[in-house]
Amino acid sequence: MSKMLIAIGGNAIIQEGQKGTIAEQKVNILTSCAPIVDLIEQGHQVVVTHGNGPQVGNSLVKAKMSADVIPMFPLDVYGAESQGNLGYLIQQTITNMLASRGLHKKAVSLVTQVEVDANDPAFNNPTKPIGPFYTKETLDQAFAERGAFPYVEDSGRGYRHVVPSPIPSKVVEKDAIEALLSQDLTVVTVGGRNPCCRRGRSTERCRGGCR
Fold first, then answer.
1. Which residue has the higher pLDDT, 189 or 207?
2. What pLDDT score was predicted for residue 89?
3. Is residue 211 part of a domain?
4. For the chain, does the N or the C end have fewer beta carbons within 10 angstroms?
């Protein structure tokens, strides 16, 4: 039995042109997980990680639109929220597919943090695109409605909000992941690399501005 780490991109879960409904995400996750379940059925032990750029960005848009009613959270909290949402959908899909094949194995998801350097230069140079694509016209409207925010032209498909993406040095919950693997569980974890600064200056800089 070999051990494998498989990543599902956030843009595979919400694909171009989709609104990001749960029904759409479930179909995309089902497609992405089918070959993963094949590997588990063959006897491989799998850790699944996933992106969260579209999901976190969408949460941020919703939060900004309702900011007059509900207070906004730091971006790392939205990252953790996406880990819970996507982890739940992925673990549910894998467990159900395993059961449909007569395999008595389960998947479990774990919300994790990664340690980064509070002085990482990425904090002053945001490069990670998140959320929906804007045309030039809708970008100008977003500026007018929510104020200026960092953005980039992404893949020729439009403009997206960008946030810092510091280099991770350690997964804080590594021991917990290993404990789950020792029980022969398929672990869905480290989704979106949610940062928790522990080296350098104050954690607040990280918690307020990372993916």
1. 189
2. 97
3. no
4. N
Partnered with residue 6 across adjacent β-strands are 48
- Look up the CATH number of the domain holding residue 80: 3.40.1160.10
Are 152 and 162 spatial neighbours (Cβ–Cβ below 8 Å)? yes
* Chain mean pLDDT for the chain: 85
Residues, the chain, total? 211
Domain that holds residue 35: 3-115+170-206
Q: What is the pLDDT of residue 104?
A: 92
Angle between helices 75-100 and 22-41 (to 10 degrees): 50
pLDDT at 210 over 50: no
Q: What are 189's strand-pairing partners? A: 110
Residue 12 resides in a domain: yes
Find how far residue 107's CA is from the centre of its chain.
Answer: 18
Reduced to 3 states, what is the DSSP secondary structure of residue 162?
A: strand
Coil, strand or helix: which one is 186? Answer: strand
